[in-house]
Amino acid sequence: MLAHLARSADHMIKHGNSTINFGLLNICSLTGKGHLVHDLLSDHKLNFLCLNETWQHPNNDFISLNNSTPPEFVYICKPRESGRGVGFAIIHQKQWKVSPVSATSFHSFEYSALQLPGSTPTIICTVYRPPKPHKDFLNNFTALLTHFSILSPNLIITGDFNIHMDENNLLTRDFTSCIDSFGLKQHINFPTHSKGHILDLVCCSGITPAQCIASSFPLLDHKLFMFNVTIKASKTLIPRNIALRKINNINLDAFSSAISDLQPAHTTSSPEDIVFNYNFNLNSILNTFAPIKQRSVSFNRSAPWFNFDLHCLKSEGHRLERLFKKTGLTIHKDLYKNHVLHYKDSIHTAKSVCYSNFISWSEGNSKTLFSLFSKITKPPDLLLNSMVSSDYCNSLMSFFTSKISNIHQQLHATRDPLSEVEPILTTPSHLFSSFSLPSVTEILNLIRESKSFTCQLDPLPTVLLKACLPSLVPLTSTIIYSSLSTRVVPATLKTACITPILKKPGADPTNFDDLRPISKLPFISKILEKVVASQLHSYLSSHNLYEQFQSGFRPQHSTETALVKITNDLLMAADSGHLSILVSLDLSAAFDTISHSILLKRLASISICHTSLAWFTSYISDRTQFIQLKSHSSSPSPVTAGVPQGSVLGPLLFIIYLLPRYIFHKYNIDFHCYADDTQLYISSNPNASLLPISLSNRLSEIRSWLSQNLLELNSNKTELLLIGTASVLKNSPNFSINIDDTTVHHLYR
């Protein structure tokens, strides 16, 4: 096993003139053609390929695009919004630092655009205009060009415009006049479609394309158009050296012996000192047995299914293509087309056999199977390929911190400072005053049962830690015993490493709103939390303190229990002839905004006291977090609110925070929760005219209750559903509800 660390060198940016090879193709559905596009990029040495009409579905349909993308390439895609057709993808080499360009959407055409930075940025846009005439097309296209011309004088506009540029009709003349007014020149002067028309265009300003050629692409009516441009652009030189440790070469017996030889912590040592020595000593031993080494790697993705037979078929395809281009005969065209179909089917068969064998060999290994599934179906992470630095990490950390701070300021402005936190409806007679110290065997089992996730803050890879458990358990037990006995959680175990991910594929990594923070904590901190969570759960269960209709993060509960309960209630109401209104509440950053002081009062109100309460106080206090991206990181930032993301205890504490839902019981509103996701529903006679008004008043009071507890109800994302039999829904009026100043309309019936 190789434990990969941060890359040994940062990305370098090269500025200056670069010749970039472009391709444009209307693919007329990418499904089943991914490997042909893959070969096209490699064979023609293209740096950018603009694809029109991918027909990509909007719901995470990335398999064909992944098949199209060679090693060292990524893509930016825009799936079709609805219906049949359309969809864009721009596949480009990772070394070109690009970012998506946002602009207004238009009904008369669709487009996808990105910006290539440089001393003068270059805007690259691919367009698809449907064949049917649209009176607003020229006005809409003028608006788009106006927006682009403000961003940069260098424009490359490509795409299938479905305008016969070879004819002298009114639309052609008006379109030519439009692009001329922006200094754009159309460079295609030969047919791009099998029927002899010029439909696919390349319009440029500030840039002159060279070596413009067209090539027939098998199975399509549109031709592949290629050209190159020379521009001043920023080019990222990606280093091919990584730092790693050869974990598999470690002699486990000698490694375990070295751990056993470590001096036990002194009985008077603080938990902080014990954890520091634990991390320092284990890291030193690891450096002795598996020092960090530099290694050059290719980063090429393997294609084990591409066998010798496929290689021969590909070579034969190139021969038939050259023959067809040389003679232009129909018989040679048909031979080439039939061979391409055979090659495509052979690839599909080879991949199916390869993946079927892999799945059979990996039976029972869910991690390997999920890794394979993720590789096939998920898009590349553009964030990892964007340029990052310490300044970027600090800016991102500041953004995440400010977001929570701003929510808190808004909530404090509407909150009544004199209002007391309401008590829990049921207070147990027994006290949870201290923790029981777990046995070494219990800790051993907890570690074995835990997932082998490793955080950058861990001194050892978790897989290696589990391999040396008999030697390590005394050390980990000492940390747990010390923390629970002294009521102190060491600061080292309260530091979170945040890795941001894109909220949705194709999002702009420079737009921080499109990023979601994923927190990782040291492995030993999660073991400590599991010890506490187990005892806290037993206490809540034995005293019946869990909210009855809370399915989140509870044993024997899941999203399925929530779904079954809500569905059953709604179906029974429908059978009784009632109309049901279901409201799905959305809370903004709920786990991050809860008040520490209110949380401690909640804990005290359910009789958590003395040593236990002091430990929880230490647990949520003085926490820090930082951003880590590759070898860059931000400065640590204090966490002043919320429960720790990525933790074991965080969700359980959040459930306790929301325990006093007296307001739901007050109005006798049916509800069910999964952590912070709350579904409210009420059923009544469909002719009850006051129902929307009554529900609006209740929701406004619920919003006030949430604000009082420093939780923000996002009214704009709150959804409303009407549920009932077909006849009831047909006769029910259209209505909406108001939550203060926001109107929520029903989505479906």
UniProtKB/TrEMBL annotation:
Reverse transcriptase domain mapped to chain residues: 482-739
Family annotation (CDD domains): RT_nLTR_like
Residues in coiled coil: none
GO molecular function: catalytic activity
Top-level division of the source organism's lineage: Eukaryota
Pfam families listed in its UniProt record: Exo_endo_phos, RVT_1
PANTHER family named in the record: ENDO/EXONUCLEASE/PHOSPHATASE DOMAIN-CONTAINING PROTEIN, REVERSE TRANSCRIPTASE DOMAIN-CONTAINING PROTEIN
Protein name: Reverse transcriptase domain-containing protein
Highest classification ranks of the organism: Eukaryota, Metazoa, Chordata, Craniata, Vertebrata
